[in-house]
Amino acid sequence: MMRALISTWLALLVACGAPEREPGSSTISVDDERGRTVRLARPATRIVSLLASHTETLVALGVGDRIVGRDTYSTGSPQIEALPDLGGLEPNVEAVAALEPDLVIAAEYGTQAGVLEQAGLTVWAGSAQRYDELFEVLDAIARLVGRAGEGERIARELRERIARVAARAQGAPRLRVYFEVDPTPYSVGPRSFIGEMIARAGGATIAPEPLGEFPRLALEEIVVRDPEVMIGLSLDEARGRPGWSSVTAVRRGRVRALSDAERDVIVRAGTRIDEGLQVLLEIIHPELAP
């Protein structure tokens, strides 16, 4: 997507609580994942966030106090949970409009962005499906709220933290991993951000790349691919599925359910993905965990 720099004198404004502005520009223009250009006369100050990873990014950028409404899944702090809950994949459009946001940030998939725009709202729609897109989305949101410089700092430090965790897995045997997104069963492809985190943790997702970032797999295909580690379900659940008792991960007891907190840092494509990588490393290669 986009990268931006910020001049030194703007840092003084930030210290005084004022939003950063792009030098030499009176309008903020940022493309979203639909190919649409979102234009703001000034940094957004009344924001509705309809994706949990976006909410975490806003908080990390230091503008959590500008959020006036959230989606159902944006949880994790009393400040955020106290905000109006506007629903999940199909938010309450009237409730969103009633909050009079100057910006709504949402996912690009589904119909929510278009419906909100039809109600006269300004919408930036996007989400990260792949690793590099994490940083593109961070940059876009940072520019929309006038914190481009802060976004660059967060991105740089996040890359450094990821590299430090990944370094511990270098040279480790690459284990076959089945990551369960849900029991249907949806999993993760190697090009998804979760698949790339699994690779950095010394694993390799069993889902074939041609099936996409988040494919649905046949139960028998999982048996054939014989993962050595299973993540996202319990050992009892795995044993209860037809044919899975013969899978290496099940026979060796290498099946690990996730707590809500662990799942959040893995599946939310946001600024805490390094914490998710640490969880994956501890599961895939517990011998390498500090």
From TrEMBL:
<protein>
    <submittedName>
        <fullName>Vitamin B12 ABC transporter, B12-binding component BtuF</fullName>
    </submittedName>
</protein>
<dbReference type="InterPro" id="IPR002491">
    <property type="entry name" value="ABC_transptr_periplasmic_BD"/>
</dbReference>
<feature type="domain" description="Fe/B12 periplasmic-binding">
    <location>
        <begin position="46"/>
        <end position="288"/>
    </location>
</feature>
<dbReference type="GO" id="GO:0071281">
    <property type="term" value="P:cellular response to iron ion"/>
</dbReference>
<dbReference type="InterPro" id="IPR050902">
    <property type="entry name" value="ABC_Transporter_SBP"/>
</dbReference>
<dbReference type="InterPro" id="IPR054828">
    <property type="entry name" value="Vit_B12_bind_prot"/>
</dbReference>
<dbReference type="Pfam" id="PF01497">
    <property type="entry name" value="Peripla_BP_2"/>
</dbReference>
<keyword id="KW-0732">Signal</keyword>
